[in-house]
Amino acid sequence: MAIRVLIGKLGLDGHDVGAKVVSRALMERGFEVIYTGLRKSPEEIARIALQEDVDAVGVSILSGAHLPLLERLAAVLREQGLGDKLWLAGGVIPREDRERVRELGFAGVFPTGSDFDAIAAFIRENVR
Amino acid sequence: MSSGKQEEIRPAFLECGIPVKPVYGPEDVKASGGFEGIGKPGEYPFTRGIHPLMYRKRPFTMRQYSGFGTAADTNRRFKWLIENGQTGLNVAFDLPTQIGLDSDDPMAEGEVGRVGMAVDSLLDMEEAFEGIDLDRITVSLTINGAAVVLMAMYFAMARKRGYDLSSLRGTAQNDILKEFVGRGTWVFPVEPSIKLVGDTIEFCAEHLPKYSPVSVCGYHIRESGARPHEEMAYAFLIARAYMDHVIGRGLDVDRFASRLSFNFDIHGLFLEQIAKFRAGRRLWARTVKEEYGAKNPRSMVLRMIAGGGGGGLTIEQPELNIVRTAYYALMSALSGTQTMALCSYDEAYTIPTERAARITLRTMQIVIEETGICDTVDPLGGSFAVETMTNEMEGKIREAMAEVDRWGGIVNAIAEGRLQAHVSREAYEREKGIREGTIPKVGVNRYRIEEEEPKVEIHPYHPEEADRARARLRELRAGRDGAAVEKALGAVREAAAAGKNVMPAVMEAVVRYATVGEIMGALREEYGAYREPVRF
């Protein structure tokens, strides 16, 4: 069975080129991708993740609001019983914030320009 | 044999797909459409520029995109930019403002003042421009989804300060159709969104004849993945959609077309970019004259901002972006732009720091004051290569426009998500090309420094500024005439429901200190919310 990955746009940021490019790259590599579209709240991301029964939840943020948004998303995902899924974060995530993002539970941090094969390999290795 | 020799020539293509010859001559210009469309600067079809003397008489405006935090913070940055020689302002609003939410909206949490200035009411607009002479410095508002409200606030602020609206200059981006393709600050569904753009065009034709109510953006469509000829084609089709709408309301083309302006991207291949703008000017002039029957030559000119170039900049070895933007500035000037803005070298990471913003401004100043290329109009005009590519590019733009017509027209293609799917496929192909090295990118797929961890100073964000914005909003709501606000909001709803131009009612509401969120909420009750088609 193909691994199911949610790619979401969290918050108000309208930059979706990267999220769509990564979605397409993962589809080409045999993943099933559920792309949420823009401007999703943490609650909507969690709802779609449950509904689609995904193995991994990846969100993209380029507005600089990644820390407050990811904190809220982490809380909601745990609350909704999605704590055992693989969480990923991408977009503009400065070096000094990456450790904090991992601490929040986003095991994979893939800033702009990340290698598609590396993202795919990371998901394959870490999805439980 | 000679055929063997030919195979040794490295193949080269423009991004629009046209093969590049190693040498061009007059026969290439002839074969591609001839010299006839070149004309003189300032004369139809304006291939060589929209003014006879271009920068000798009227230097391009330097207009960096800026704004962050509160109105007071932004006002300080504006004044700093003006002191440093910037000649226009381009206002960045934060995301809540751009999509019509107040700073105390739960959806706004973490985003207030982050990527631009937070504006909730006329108070903020007044503070942002305090001490800035609006006759001397023209202001461009980068606002789309909430444009009717922010334009009304700007007009109300100017009127309060004693400026005569009938002579007020400036520009609003206010191009909502491209927001559905790239940038993403849409609010209402497609049809009412176009109607609102029509309201602003009509209102300005009536009351602010010097103001540019729309700047149609190929820029963000290009940044979202479109190739250069498509950038022009889609922008022109979007402009036509607005024109058709207001002409349908009974407005004569010569009453508004001269106030439409355009916003284009500059990254890409040097000669192709210059050809793109020259071809675009010619095609647009021909369209407005031949298809829309305009009589006034000023209706036919393509006024533009050409710059940015974010899509060409890299995360890797960010200081190389300073070099890239210098070339972009040169390309933009050689293209005959009216206004220039450039992304700063750190913009892939953060909103520009003061240091980065100053380097970018100086880059433009070097082009205009040091290099001498602005002393001669369209200095590349007559180049066999540039004229051939200009002719070829005009054909490619027309092909891309015809393709969208086959998809059922631009409005349908956007409403159904078809254009977005097409553009995002191209973004993917481009990304793949960069990763595989078929599209050269220095520092990324060649001359890469593997161990490098770029050090970039991140523009600081102060969450307490969001608290201040919320406190100010509470104070405003407590102190204003609540009944007058309710009445004004009711009038906004009524105008929307009756299909009338909403601008007069929105003007009245902003003067009563109704907030961005309240006015947009009133409109949303009538128009509903856009549902994004997700299509690959």
Could you explain the architecture of this structure?
- The complex is a heterodimer of chains A (about 130) and B (about 525).
- Chain A is globular and about 35 Å long.
- In chain A, helix 2 (about 40-50) packs across helix 3.
- Chain A is of the alpha/beta class.
- Helix content of chain A is about 45%, strand content about 20%.
- Chain B is α/β, with parallel strands linked by helices.
- Chain B contains 22 helices and ten strands.
- In chain B, strand 2 (about 65), helix 3 (about 70-85) and strand 3 (about 90) form a beta-alpha-beta unit.
- The interface of A and B includes residues 24 and 96 of A.
Please give the alpha-carbon distance between the first and last residues of chain A.
Answer: 13 Å
Shape verdict of chain A: globular
**Cα Rg of chain B:** 23 Å
Annotated CATH homologous superfamily of chain A: Cobalamin-binding domain
DSSP helix fraction of chain A: 40-55%
CATH class of chain B: Alpha Beta
Shape of chain B: globular
CATH-derived architecture of chain A: 3-Layer(aba) Sandwich
Kindly report how far apart the N and C termini of chain B lie. 48 Å
Our count of domains of chain B comes out at 1
